[in-house]
Amino acid sequence: MHDHQHLKTAGDPSTWIPSFSQLIQLYFVIITATAFLAATLPFLRDSILSYGKLDYPSSTTNTATATNASPAQKKPLAATPVADHGQFFVVLKTLRVPKTWFAHFYVFATLWMVYLSLDLLVYTLSSTSSTSPVLQIVPSIFISTYPSWSFLTLLNLLGIMPSHPHSLSWTPPPALLLAMSCYLIQVVRRWYESWFVERPSPQATLHIGHYLIGITFYAAMAPAIWVDTYESWVKSTVLQNQTDQHEHQSQHAIEHENLFGSLPLQTWIGFALFLWGSLHQYRCHVILANLRKPSSREASAGVQRQQEYKVPFGDWFQYLVTPHYSAEMVIYLGLYLMVSSSLSLSTSPTVPTMLYSWVWVIVNLGIVARETDQWYRTRFGDNYAEPKETVTGQQRQPKTARRAILIPFVY
């Protein structure tokens, strides 16, 4: 089924061709460095960093919440001077798209994950396993036309994606199958939320740089989940140089016979973190959406009022400025633990690819969380995060401890 001439080429120190995992790791390093530059250099920070409410030009302020704000804090964002860094950066700042395009990330991520999983399934089957029961779930049209639509086969021809020994098939370990399923659930849930839960302002925008990084991030995330485990398995079969590969294949099948029955503790911890983070992220997104929910009278009359931003309360918002970002960090930590528990320590990379992606998530969300905290302080004053009792509408919100930005007691 596959051309195996590149078995020892991808990632081999004696060649200039990187492996698939090394390319993905390099991508995460580049976007992480870019995020640091965008947060550090004033001309990039002014041009591309802000989005959504962080770039909202209205000078309206919630007077009930900003009573104790200093004159500098009460200053409208639109009146804040922006350094002039030349015509290029003026044009750069105008390259924006509607924030509603966030939904594109999750539509693409879902379809890409499904496609790549099918591609991986067929790619990792040996040419002698055409009668495998696994193939029964794959329509014959995909098998007969496989080389014409396979992204992984193209990477293999370029020497980037390694292929397995001719008579062996690769079955992802149970921990990895669980991680892949969880990631698919995550992007499908975010797709649902972006369409049916969230209520972004019609005026909110997103810089084109953010949009491109978002799309490419999800393009890299799908293979990042399984690439290390697969490459580790290929290396182990090459290093072992077994004479009886059929015996190895039978042993490989026995190891996965019970599927989720013998998962290590690390996998269960990662799965628990994933569920915990997902639950709270959904709750936080609902709270944010309800802040923008029109009254029943306005809804019945079809009135679209000007965007009014409020301070959120409830769930993790009682303790954090951006708890939906904190939950995202927990979710990706859970995915990392599940994926890393499936790796063979003897042949896996020193730093798993999923760790690179988790570092990017922390850096990216940490920067945006800091900007969000500064925006809240500018608009509502320092007291928005102080212990106090507030009244919103007919509901009295309980006192809240001073909020951390992203990580309790740390940041």
From TrEMBL:
<feature type="transmembrane region" description="Helical">
    <location>
        <begin position="208"/>
        <end position="227"/>
    </location>
</feature>
<dbReference type="InterPro" id="IPR039698">
    <property type="entry name" value="Dfg10/SRD5A3"/>
</dbReference>
<feature type="transmembrane region" description="Helical">
    <location>
        <begin position="137"/>
        <end position="158"/>
    </location>
</feature>
<protein>
    <recommendedName>
        <fullName>3-oxo-5-alpha-steroid 4-dehydrogenase C-terminal domain-containing protein</fullName>
    </recommendedName>
</protein>
<dbReference type="GO" id="GO:0006488">
    <property type="term" value="P:dolichol-linked oligosaccharide biosynthetic process"/>
</dbReference>
<keyword id="KW-1133">Transmembrane helix</keyword>
<feature type="transmembrane region" description="Helical">
    <location>
        <begin position="24"/>
        <end position="44"/>
    </location>
</feature>
<dbReference type="GO" id="GO:0003865">
    <property type="term" value="F:3-oxo-5-alpha-steroid 4-dehydrogenase activity"/>
</dbReference>
<feature type="transmembrane region" description="Helical">
    <location>
        <begin position="101"/>
        <end position="125"/>
    </location>
</feature>
<feature type="domain" description="3-oxo-5-alpha-steroid 4-dehydrogenase C-terminal">
    <location>
        <begin position="265"/>
        <end position="386"/>
    </location>
</feature>
<feature type="transmembrane region" description="Helical">
    <location>
        <begin position="170"/>
        <end position="188"/>
    </location>
</feature>
<dbReference type="InterPro" id="IPR001104">
    <property type="entry name" value="3-oxo-5_a-steroid_4-DH_C"/>
</dbReference>
<keyword id="KW-0812">Transmembrane</keyword>
<feature type="transmembrane region" description="Helical">
    <location>
        <begin position="353"/>
        <end position="369"/>
    </location>
</feature>
<keyword id="KW-0472">Membrane</keyword>
<dbReference type="Pfam" id="PF02544">
    <property type="entry name" value="Steroid_dh"/>
</dbReference>
<dbReference type="GO" id="GO:0016095">
    <property type="term" value="P:polyprenol catabolic process"/>
</dbReference>
<dbReference type="GO" id="GO:0005783">
    <property type="term" value="C:endoplasmic reticulum"/>
</dbReference>
